[in-house]
Amino acid sequence: MRRKDREILGDENIAKIIEQCTTCHIAMIDDANVGMPYVIPISFGYSLMDGVLELYFHCAHVGKKLDCILKNPNVAFSMCVENRIEIHEDDYCRSGRFYASVVGQGKAEIVEDNAEKCRGLSLLMKRQAAGAAHGSNSAPSMHATPHKFEFTPAQAAAVTVFKITSVNFTGKAKSE
Hints:
Blueprint: E1 7-8, H1 11-18, E2 24-30, E3 36-42, E4 45-49, E5 52-59, H2 64-71, E6 74-86, E7 96-110, H3 114-133, H4 153-156, E8 160-174
């Protein structure tokens, strides 16, 4: 990272950023389109422990992102929370936005194990519910939702769950 003064270190600090993000952008290689990149924004759930980040997603049983993942599981991801912009009228080059982000690379895989699939869906639903509890304009919090979302294997069978596992991710922020 070039701007070491903005680097965010430690699982707990990275998790604080992730908890504020509502969407994860996933970049994949689209072999069907001559190796062109393919990026898709998608809702997510996550687990972060001992420097291993697992991002969980759900989708239909067929589709372009699954085709890309099955052909090449190497992906990149990005999530960001943007805060206010600061304009310096006397020197526009000093202007900028306050932000926090997490970016990384990892391997995507289809989750086949029913218990893990249900866990991934629960993590995803908790994130969605936390955001809804605070309104769409405020940051979700994993701790704001007392409801425990549980899925049965039959419910999990209705969707495909995939996850990205990453040990190569960084946090960055421009704070006020």
